[in-house]
Amino acid sequence: MQAVISFNPLTFGKFMRFVKRSAVVLALSGMMAAASLPAQAAPPSAAAAQTMEEAANKALVLQLHNALLGGRALHELGSYFAPHLIAHDPAMLNGRSGMLAAIGAWRQSLSGHTLTVKHVLSDRNQVLVHSHVSATPGKELSGANWLDIYRLE
User: Fold this and answer.
1) 72 contacts 103 by C-beta, under 8 angstroms
2) Measuring CA to CA, how many Å separate 74 from each of 85, 90, 134?
3) Which of 43, 74, 123, 129 is deepest in the core (most CB within 10 A)?
4) What pTM does this model have?
5) Contact 129/117 with Cβ under 8 angstroms?
6) Run means of pLDDT, 10 residues per run, the chain, 153 residues
7) CA triplet 143, 28, 94: central angle to 5 degrees?
C-alpha cells in the first residue's frame, strides 16, 4: 500500500515534506503491523475506560484544530500546550512560546485559508490528525495535507 500526499512547496520546506512523509509511512507501517497481531481480549471495563479516554483526547485535539487558524486569540491557545513541549521541527523553538510563535506565523502565511479535518485516530494518549489546508477547500486537489501527531499528558 502506498500513500500519496501532496505538499505546497511555498508553505513547507523540503525538511517538512520529509518529516511529514516519514510520519505517514511510520503511521501506516504501525497500523499494518498492529493489524497483523492477534487480538488480545481486555476486560470489558478496561476497554470501555480506554475508549472513553480516547474519545476525550480526540475531542480536545479537535477543539485545538478548530481554533488553529482563527476563532480564538493566540494567547488563549497556550493552555493546549505543555510549557516543556519539545518541537520536533528544527525551525521551531521548544516550549509553549515556540509553538505559539509558530501558530502565529502559520496564521499570517495562511490568511484566508480553511483548515478541514479529514481523519482523527487515537491510541490511548496519542492522537493523529489528518487535515487539509486550502484557500479553495471545495477543490480537493488544491492546498496541502497536514499530518499532526499529539501526545496528551
Assistant:
1) no
2) 17, 22, 21
3) 129
4) 0.63
5) yes
6) 34 43 44 51 63 91 82 83 86 89 86 87 92 85 88 87
7) 65
